[in-house]
Amino acid sequence: MHKMKFQNKTILITGAAHGLGRELALLLDEMGCLLYLIDRDAQGLFHLAQDLTQEHQLIQCDLSDLRERIKLIQRIKKAETKINILINCAGIGSHSQLSQLNVEEIERVIQVNTLAPLELIASLSPLELIVNIGSVAGEMSLPSISLYSASKSSLHAFTKSIQLEGMNTLLVILGPLGGTDFVQSIEHPRTGQPKWYRELDLDVKLAARGIMDAMKGGKRQIVLPRWYQIVFIVVRLFLPLMKIFGRQLQEESSAPGNTSHQSPG
User: Could you tell me the CA-to-CA distances from 166 to 101, 161, 186 in Å, in that order?
Assistant: First the structure.
């Protein structure tokens, strides 16, 4: 177990302007780290900078665009600053059934959730620590999240494989968070969830502290909220019922008069 000290470390965080990325940036700023804060939202980065105690590198970059990712990597290398820790926090959601998926959504989700983290890891290595923010969707097969599950399970598999190569990594298997705008990234957001379900969301500040504790303690993997470990077992036990539910969704989506298919934007 490799415990991590953060003083004077240079850390790159993607998706830093909002949600979990923002909370991690605030915590690491207090520890005296030099931060490279990456986000497509320039205004969000500006507002984040107002709450930080030090000056950091703020870089606007849309990770869904390969050309912008290449420019980002070139800029970091040109600066000749050694990145010690990489936190791949940027993510985009998908709650589309197969009948709703289109090329644009598939491209966008895979670019941000899978290709961008892998490219940054490969380009900036060797790194002292790689933190990949995964999802419970990367560990479970459920209806209507096929694309999102594919994007996150790929990240999970990559993380676990490079661990076997000797890389120091932390895989964060994350459930629903409260206090974020993540749902706004979803093309076909699920609606009608009962209030009690949303009350199970983990507060984003608690999630950030849990990740920091795991980084300090040298953990390889954490599940947040922790009770999702029980959910994994239950889902695997009741997978046959999930298949029946999935067939019902397919029948509903193909029923006459269904107009759920949309194009991005």
Answer: 37, 9, 35
